[in-house]
# Entry
Amino acid sequence: GYPQGLVGDAIPVPALVMAVADTYDALTSNRVYRAGIAHDKAIQQLFQERGGQFAPDMVDALIEVQHVFADIAQRFADSEIDLQKQMDYLANAIAENP
# Structure
């Protein structure tokens, strides 16, 4: 509902779907500053926010097709080379702005 302050049924369904999908990706993806968490832990964390941060029916739908999420995450995971490029980019950006 952000930034319009929408709640409940006023929130568009695509936004509800994206909230769950984006959070799953954020939890499971490796970042330069931290490792991603395992699929099962991500599902558990999303389930804990069912009815809180996330619409219950969206979390339920995710759980039904969680194997698809796991397959996609594994297929498109960043490689060590990708992470090294990100680290190099950040190091250069920091060096340019003392």
Notes: Residues 13 and 97 are 42 Å apart (CA to CA). The first helix runs from residue 13 to 28. The radius of gyration is 17 Å. The chain has a mean pLDDT of 90.
